[in-house]
Specification:
mainly alpha, two-stranded antiparallel sheet, 7% strand, 4 strands, two-stranded antiparallel ribbon, single chain, 3 helices
């Protein structure tokens, strides 16, 4: 199998869209194809129950939206609260320009402080 050239965004395939308008056109086409597929599945549900229920069960599956993240010390975090803290530390350090994470304050307490 021949290897595909990488696009400017680092993914296999053609180059990334050069403008926001191109991006909109591509996603509009994807949406139209998806709508057409769903209409066909609904229309043919009586004759193609297996295909219909396969599509429905595929849509019911919950996808984990954010994978495990690694703290600066190398520990992996898996809970949503820990992930939020890792993102908070990263972005607060980026936007503050300090080069190290600082905790945002909410109601006089630092985010991540233990109550009690």
């Amino acid at each position: 199998m021949p290897s595909q050239a990488l696009s400017s965004d680092g993914y296999p395939g053609p180059t990334a869209p050069s403008s926001y308008t191109e991006h909109d056109i591509i996603w509009d086409g994807v949406r139209k194809v998806k709508v057409q597929l769903e209409l066909n599945l609904a229309r043919d549900a009586k004759n193609n129950k297996k295909g219909f229920y396969r599509y429905v069960s595929q849509k019911r599956k919950v996808k984990e939206s954010v994978p495990q993240l690694m703290k600066r010390n190398g520990d992996l975090v898996s809970t949503d609260e820990e992930k939020a803290e890792v993102f908070n530390n990263f972005f607060s350090s980026v936007f503050s320009g300090n080069g190290y994470p600082h905790l945002s304050q909410v109601n006089g307490q630092h985010v991540g402080d233990q109550a009690g």
